């Protein structure tokens, strides 16, 4: 423990003599300074909490020990005793009661038929209905696709050839429209070639 001396200028540590006989100079001490050896050791909150008494103030340790022993005894009894009703409204049948019930059944009692599980039946009906709806939808799609193909399909070649023949007959009757007829013939032949190409593509796709 460091001893301080005071004078008009404040606190100071007085001069002390070393073992070899020399003297240390006196040292001034600022107000509020605490030497390192006098600083209290740091203690965590957990350590301080553990040092506090675990019993309530004024309760003697003997009474606390008796209360603890009584509580432990009750817990052991509760663990050894089987639970009567762990869930409210739950009836627990012991093995001997079950055996008595089996013996009490008459010998000519018919076994109960297993009830039909309604959810499975409904599920099967639903699956059948879905399959029917899918097949109807597929047939409808096929009909629609056939109708679209028939609409997109060009006129048969017979109609085109008839039109060409009619034009040729008309050209024989009037020589003035010969140039017009030749143009129309070229156009019709071009259409015939296009129709043939389209038909070949349709056959290849089928």
User: Element order, helices and strands?
Assistant: EEEHHHHHH
Strand order of the largest sheet: 1-2-3
Gyration radius, in Å? 57 Å
Helical content stands at 55-70%
Task: Give a topology summary.
Layout: E1 5-7, E2 10-13, E3 27-28, H1 45-51, H2 61-80, H3 95-104, H4 118-152, H5 157-173, H6 178-205
Antiparallel strand pairs: 1-2, 2-3
Helix pairs in contact: 5-6
Question: Could you explain how this protein is built, in words?
Answer:
The chain has helices spanning 45-51, 61-80, 95-104, 118-152, 157-173, 178-205, and strands at 5-7, 10-13, 27-28. A three-stranded antiparallel sheet has the order 1-2-3, with no helix packed on it. A hairpin with a 2-residue loop joins strand 1 and strand 2. The protein is elongated and about 150 Å long. Helix 5 runs antiparallel to helix 6. The longest helix has 35 residues, at 118-152. The chain has a domain at 154-206. It is mostly helical. The relative contact order is 0.04.
Notable features of this structure?
single chain, 57% helix, WIBG_mago-bd, 3 strands, 6 helices, PYM1, 3-stranded antiparallel β-sheet, RNA binding, Partner of Y14 and mago, 206 residues, mainly alpha, WIBG_N_sf
């Amino acid at each position: 423990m460091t001893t301080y001396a005071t004078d008009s200028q404040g606190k100071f540590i007085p001069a002390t003599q070393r073992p070899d006989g020399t003297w240390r100079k006196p040292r001034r001490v600022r107000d509020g300074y605490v030497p390192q050896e006098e600083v209290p050791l740091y203690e965590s909150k957990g350590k301080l909490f553990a040092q506090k008494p675990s019993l309530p103030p004024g309760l003697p340790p003997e009474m606390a020990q008796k209360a603890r022993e009584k509580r432990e005894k009750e817990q052991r009894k509760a663990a050894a005793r089987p639970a009567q009703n762990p869930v409210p409204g739950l009836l627990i049948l012991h093995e001997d009661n079950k055996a008595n019930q089996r013996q009490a059944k008459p010998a000519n009692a018919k076994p109960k038929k297993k009830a039909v599980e309604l959810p499975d039946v409904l599920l099967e009906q639903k699956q059948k209905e879905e399959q029917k709806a899918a097949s109807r939808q597929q047939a409808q799609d096929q009909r629609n696709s056939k109708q679209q193909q028939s609409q997109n399909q060009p006129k048969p070649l017979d109609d085109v050839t008839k039109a060409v023949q009619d034009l040729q007959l008309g050209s024989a009757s009037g020589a003035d429209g010969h140039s017009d007829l030749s143009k129309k013939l070229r156009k019709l032949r071009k259409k015939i070639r296009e129709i043939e190409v389209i038909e070949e593509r349709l056959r290849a796709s089928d």
